[in-house]
Amino acid sequence: MSVTIETPRAPQGVRRHRRFNIEKWGWIYMRASGVVLVVLIFGHLFVNLVAGEGVKAIDFGFVGGKLSQPFWQIWDTLLLWLALIHGANGMRTIVNDYANNRTLRIIFKGALLAATIVLILLGTLVIYTFDPCPAGAPADLLPSFCPAN
């Protein structure tokens, strides 16, 4: 008795409609964002911990000085967005693997999406609206780079 198996790439009688494959794009995103995150994280750690005076120099003035420069605003925004989305995508994968109940899976993914959106919005808001030199603040509490009022 002989069994014939058609080649896997043989054209089928009915062609299926191709849909957006979120698992494939999630997998690709995890690899691409992981590479970029390694560069961003090590750059962040180098500037904050190695360059300059090290850990003892990190204070309100240091952070305020960094966040007053557009380069560091973009750097920190990329770090924030990529890390949060990377982590949320990993959590989505865990929810898909371990939540067997469809309703529970939808609730978990909805909560994960809501938390990610809120954290991205709040973090981005802080990065771009942070003012290390607020008007009316006592001069002795302001960082050294603030102009005297």
TrEMBL record:
Segments passing through the bilayer: 28-51, 71-89, 110-130
Compartment(s) of residence: Cell inner membrane
Membrane topology: Multi-pass membrane protein
Cofactor: heme
Keywords attached to this entry: Cell inner membrane, Cell membrane, Electron transport, Heme, Iron, Membrane, Metal-binding, Transmembrane, Transmembrane helix, Transport, Tricarboxylic acid cycle
Keyword Transmembrane helix applies: yes
Role this protein plays: Membrane-anchoring subunit of succinate dehydrogenase (SDH).
Protein name: Succinate dehydrogenase hydrophobic membrane anchor subunit
